[in-house]
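Annotated sample (chain length 227).
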Amino acid sequence: MHWTRSFAIIAAAAVTLGTGALKGAAQNAAGDTNERNWWRNAVFYEIYPRSFGDANNDGIGDLKGITAHLDYLKGLGVDAIWLTPIYPSPQVDFGYDISDYVAIDPQYGTMADFDRLMAEANKRHIRVLMDMVMNHSSDKHKWFLQSRSSKTNPYRDWYVWHDGKGETATDKGQPPNNWESVFGGSAWEWDDKTRQYYYHKFYTQQPDRTGTTRRCGRRSRTSSTSG
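Output written by the structure step:
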């Protein structure tokens, strides 16, 4: 009968379409997984901008210098470049003391230079990773300037503050514990204004941030090495 033949054709088509859809879904899922895990087999090239490519010949590497070397990097088989900090900084620790996370240090160029670097890297299928260094900031960052302004400032608990041992109204006492800085000496620095110590794993100009920040009723988590 004709209806049985029609039914068989429809059923076969449904199975074919269903199988195709399943294959497509599986391929999409595999593609998503590969995209998420792209870094596992990628070739990374870490760049310290200060000494990499100096486009304006002022003795300091810059973003334009990196852009000018993208073809060279592509020829090496590089899949991604990892930029050490290029943000504004007093340069106490060669850029790892960041005073502004949303700008470019003028010695490296401008935001327009950075945008061009990103665009040119994208043309060559080279990813760009930024070194953010969120566990500490410069002591010149607006967050820390607010934090050290008073014990009741909303930014106070963005950094690690602690009373000294044996502290009195006229004596700062001793550091809270025996933790040492990576660069030697105590990891605690006394602040005269608010009469507490703040923690710095590295230089005194690099106060460590806490893992939790609260402001305007919102709460977020940040990485921290402050223990």
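Annotation: Helices lie at 2-36, 63-68, 70-75, 111-123, 142-147.
Annotation: The CA atoms of residues 163 and 196 lie 5 Å apart.
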